[in-house]
Amino acid sequence: MAQGYTYLAGLILSLMGLALMDWRHKTAFTINKKAASLAIFIPLVFFIIWDVAGIATGIFFRGDTSHLSGVLLAPEFPIEELFFLLILNYSSLTIFTTVSKVIAKRSAK
Asked: 8, 52, 57, 58: which is deepest, by most CB within 10 A?
């Protein structure tokens, strides 16, 4: 694999790991696909708008690294950013639902 795709590959593997944990422990999509999709994609849109605003004002920029693929979805917006934001939202959802389950289980005792 070319070095330029290592970060993207790591992000994809991380998403796959989250999906496996979701399936195994029934934390998000395995409980309610529609609610999980909304809980991930609504914040995703917010963060994309946030990134675009940051790029437009010159606060955010891509930078030079050999670990990025070079595939840009928009100026200064690499494809890796989209996958990172997906991981951010999916992991937040799975952490929230897992903690909620633990609290409910402890309260039931």
From this structure: 8
